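Q: I'm writing up a methods section and want to include an example of the input and output format. Could you take the sequence below and give the corresponding predicted structure tokens, formatted cleanly so I can copy it straight into the document?
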Amino acid sequence: VRRLDGIDLGVYGGVMRRAALVVANDTGPGHLAAAVGAPTFSVLGPTVPEQWAPWGPTVRVLREWPRWPTVDEALAATGLAAPMAAAPLPTAGLVRPAKAAGEGGAPLPVEVSAAEA
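A: Here is the clean output for your methods example:
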């Protein structure tokens, strides 16, 4: 985990593009990571993923309704044992077939609940 204080948006996008995995909630960094094609694990709270989640073939979404997933649920869904663990993002059991294309033909995010992870 590294802080990237004071870098410009283009450099930030470039760093994300090279990341092994970007974990973000439903904010700008998650959308930027998806836009540059970085493997992105987006943790959503009580929101509508079709409206607010990042889109793309490299995006996986964890959402619990009507609450935010816990840290333990998010780590279990990614397969990471601890926040600093260096493990790849598993896809078996986490990824459902892609949903129909959304606006602009982009695939909608794949959603999984913590109970399914």
